[in-house]
Amino acid sequence: LSPGDSGPTITFTAADAALRATYLAQNGETKPLTAGSTISQFDLMRVTLVASANNYADALAGWAFGSRAAFEIAVTAWLGAHGLDQTTIVEPTGINPSNVSTASDLVKIGTLALANPVVSQIVSTRSMTLAGVGNLKNTNTLLGNSGVEGIKTGTLNGSSNLLFAAKYSYGSHSVTVVGAVIGATDHGAVDATVTTLLAGFKAGFH
Question: Are 31 and 58 in contact (CB under 8 A)?
Fold first, then answer.
């Protein structure tokens, strides 16, 4: 997508609607989704990234690639093309523990994400309202604090994680920091760690 482009209109199927029950059974994060309803590609990406909705992420991958097997082939090729050899992705939501990565690879992925202006815009969105879904708040509670402008939270099996980005100005220069905190006990601990990391960066930068 280009900035300002909403992309094609997508019609949700009965299989898409059934995804909510699938992810609720796994204690996943879901949002309302009705068979036959429509959504733009941009809004589908927004619900996925702002609200961390597993069912919307799966529906997005299904629409884009046609099948889970095709998604896995495409994402494996993308990871290889970008030298992300410490990352394995087997499904699009992150709920499967076979999806693995390292802090260093996550920083590379975050940098690539921010280079896309549409993705960068979405991950900095604090809240959104969508007909049929309601008002959604970003799961990244650090947005707008300590210069934080993204990127994505993650929670799995009692472990809390955050791939973050913060932007600072030094004179005429703009500096973007990308980092990752993984394996924290909860999101409060993540936020405290990121705040400390960024304070150290700001104090030490020259």
Answer: no
